[in-house]
Amino acid sequence: MTTATTPTFENPFFARVWPVAAAHETEAVRALRRENLAGLSGRVLEVGAGIGTNFPNYPESVAQGVAMEPEPRLAARARVAAAAASVPVVLTNETVEEFHSGQPFDAVVCSLVLCSVRDPEAVLRRVYEFLRPGGELRYLEHVASAGMRGRLQRFADATIWPRLLGNCHTHRDTERAIVDAGFEVNSSRREWTLPAWSPMPVSELLLGRARRP
């Protein structure tokens, strides 16, 4: 495992909160993470690796993983996870906007990250560029819910939720942004990861696979 270091983003509060949240993910979320990575092969780019929660789930068919995590405290935890991974993982502190790859990737993985980037449409256009033709985007993301849950999400997004949780916006139409970036969605579904009565605005997740034509 090697590391490219160009730290550009710091969020000390979120860097303390996220490792705790990741360590206490429900089994439903963990199962969706595993499904999101199943069958990957070749060169894989992960955007927003956090503390490296996905690394143990990378299949042996992955020849190389390149993981972006610009928050330095999270990246330090991710380095430990990368060193223990069963496939080679290169960690970079670059953001999507800064990152340049000498060769295209076979797949890009986004897990609970498109909700937090400032410009998801621009990020997805860059992700599109990183992929080879026919390459795949795997995504597991917070998604805008309907009805009362959707109203709760809009309230959360307009108040304290993004400030506390690393700019997380819970009411984004992420799949529309994926299609608008030029991807063809091959499969997608919504899953509830907490009971329907839970007041959390992030109870519903979107799992999908999209292809660069």
Features of the shown structure:
213 residues, alpha/beta, Rossmann fold, 8-stranded mixed β-sheet, 7 helices, 8 strands, 33% helix, globular, disordered N terminus
Topology:
Elements: E1 3-4, H1 12-23, H2 27-37, E2 42-47, E3 62-68, H3 72-84, E4 89-92, E5 105-111, H4 120-130, E6 131-142, H5 147-158, H6 161-164, H7 174-180, E7 184-192, E8 204-211
Parallel strand pairs: 1-4, 2-3, 2-5, 3-4, 5-6
Antiparallel strand pairs: 6-8, 7-8
Organism: Mycobacterium ahvazicum
Protein name: Class I SAM-dependent methyltransferase
GO molecular function: methyltransferase activity
Describe this structure in words.
This protein has 213 residues and is α/β, with parallel strands linked by helices. The chain has one domain: Vaccinia Virus protein VP39 (Rossmann fold). The protein has helices at residues 12-23, 27-37, 72-84, 120-130, 147-158, 161-164, 174-180, and strands at 3-4, 42-47, 62-68, 89-92, 105-111, 131-142, 184-192, 204-211. It has an eight-stranded mixed sheet with strand order 1-4-3-2-5-6-8-7, sandwiched between helices. It starts with a strand and ends with a strand.
